[in-house]
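Handout, section 3.2

Students often ask what a structure token actually looks like in practice. Rather than define it abstractly, here is a full record for Myosin, essential light chain. The first block is the sequence as you would receive it.
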Amino acid sequence: MAEIEQSMIDEMKDGFPLFDNKGDGKIDGAQLGDVLRSFGLNPSNAEVEKIAKANEGKRLSFDDYLAIHKQVLGQGEVGSYEDFFEGLKLFDKEGTGLISGAELRHVLATLGEKLTEAQVDELMAGGGGQEDAEGNVNYDTFAKYLMLG
């Protein structure tokens, strides 16, 4: 299980009561995604659904939550620039460093952790996803943009 610095545990302990809607020092299992994200984690929707289902109908103490937080923390890191670059490069059939903006939108909306149309629009409108005059996106720039967070 991943280790968490004591200062972070103290910070989470201070913030935990904000999610306690019954005043019993516990949170609903259905709130786990929100609580995890508020304390700096970014679990996938699939991870949140799995955890929420396992804790459906339960009220979780801070210690219960902390164990789940450590579990999610230890499940992996965000991909590296190289991971994103190599993944996007697969769609560059001509080896030009460009992929179709429409194809990129399709990939973002349908593969892996599927994004909504609004999320895709937000990513594409950002600095890295802008299409050139021919509707192509430089995937090196896009991968770098993704790594900026």
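Discussion prompt for tutorial groups: Residues 81-147 form a domain with the Recoverin; domain 1 fold (CATH 1.10.238.10). How would you have guessed this from the sequence alone?
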